[in-house]
Amino acid sequence: MIALTTATIGLIAPPNNWDSMTYHMSRVEHWRANASVAHYPTNVVWQLYLNPWAEFAILQFQTLGFGSDRFANSVQWFAFVGSMVGVSILLRLLGGSLFAQSLAALVVASMPMIILQSSSTQNDVVCGLFVIAAVYFVFERRVTAGGTREIYFPLSVALAVATKGTAYPILFPFVAYSVITVLKQYGLRQGVRLAGVLVLAVFLLNLGHWSRNFGLWQHPLGDPEWLRQYQNESFGVPETLSNVVRNVALHLGTPSSRVNASIEAGVQKIHGMLGIRTNEPLLTFVARSQIVPGPEYLTHEDYAGNGMVLVLSIVAVTCALMTHGGRRLRPFALLLLLSGLCFCLALKWAPFNSRLHTPLFLLAAPMVGWLLAPRQFESLNVSIVYWKNVAVLVGASLIAGGLVLNEWVIASLFGAGGAIHSGSLRVGIWVVDVLAILSGILAIVWSSLYLRIVTGLVVLVLTLGAVPWITLNQLRPLISTTYAPSIFDRTRIEQMFANRGGLIIPYTALVARLVQQPSCREIGLKLQVGDFEYPLWQMARSAGVDHVFRHVGVTNKSAQIGNGIPRESPCPIVIIGGEEQGDPDVPGRGDMREVWSAPPIRLLVRLSPEQKQ
User: Fold this and answer.
1) CA 405: distance to chain centroid?
2) What residue numbers bound the domain in which 435 lies?
3) 70 with 102, same domain?
4) How does pLDDT run across 69-123, given as a tens digit for each residue?
5) Is 401 helix (H, G, I), strand (E, B) or coil?
6) 356-368 mean pLDDT
7) What backbone torsions phi and psi does residue 421 show, to the nearest 5 degrees?
């Protein structure tokens, strides 16, 4: 039901997150207009050097017969469904029961960040799918061996790398483990063979993109100036601990400002002990005054956290490493820890890093599924007395929780002004409390059923816990909120401006003026990093014109590109000024004059020979 609901949202709502408006979907439009994925002159170099596989997939839906962006969000959605399958069969390899596999899939389906992204054109879930595939084939090799299966691991790694740069640090421990395992089990020859096939697959699948980057920046990964901004510039134990603490804190935000302030104070105290500033420039890509996200970020796909899954993951990894029951999961749990550590070592902290953690949380889902699956479905050799004692303890805990966590206590912790103003929310709290108390009584009276009762509650909590993120997505809400109307109450064009609602009026007026110049197919465009470009393409197409927007006044290295694509001299030029970056200008426009403006947009047209005279 969660998957079907997010699929519906993805079909009704257009791409509308910030990155899609500035580079994900914009690069797809340029590739379509150029009939080539070659680099092109642009004011936004993100459109060129960032890993392109997810956008290549979107390009198929945009070009081969569909003619609109109706199916653009489906790339992430298919990855979402594939990830549920992936974590399930990965847990099967690691020794999990069928029920544990089902819970692992439900954990994926109920994670806030993954729900929010599954109906968008971001690429973190796509990257996560290939990461899961790569890890699956790492551990499958320990069980089976075959010529056709051997290539799947290198291909999965290559596709993950082609999708997003975060795959490098996240997959590094698993790749190293795979090579070392093959060396130990099969000898030097097989180890060298695996390493060679891996390198060849990654090289061949990424050669085109790397060569285009190298031709422009003499670096296969792109613009060195931007790459330096992503990568940590200081290393050491305190620096690494700072990044670990701050990345964990991104998932600890709650609806309560008071609780958030307490967690923030803890983060600040730890940094005081480490002797490092929380916004240390050498370790921070984008600074923010508060590390812990506030209530306003909880349902935003760029900043939402996976707090409950994080806590369960920590417990699961600890149990796997320290108990006998997790012996088959120990290598995986240790590699998962190393993967998260590599992420913190390699990349600077940013407020949106919770989104980049998506592959790590997908890898954690099998651990959580294993932790939550009742042990009696796998092993029954436990004394009846032990089960009765545990049943009484669990039952008492459920009754205490139902009594203590009532409406008034929750209101004092999380409610605005110490009160809950939503009638439906108050009813929901009382329903949950009554269920917890009744479940506790049942667990005590019928101890043989207590594990099934707990299991039912776990499934209920995971499923109901997903509802806010399904229905109240800030960019694509099913239910109208103070942040935005429902997707059923707005046109697709209106929804594209969910992040910057104030732009829809000037953008609409601009496109109306451009439509009045049917003889001008190519429109010059001057903007800065962070300005919305994609809506211009889609709004022009919706108005029935086939405008192509060519970047002009480019000052970065892409200005030197001459890729043989025929271009007209743009009759009008659109200049879009950034919110904080000033008002960009176009050099050498002496034969043009401004005919219209509506902040932050100006429209210039070329003077006719008569007008010049």
Assistant:
1) 32
2) 371-471
3) yes
4) 999 999 999 999 999 999 999 999 998 888 899 999 999 999 999 999 999 999 9
5) helix
6) 97
7) -90, -10
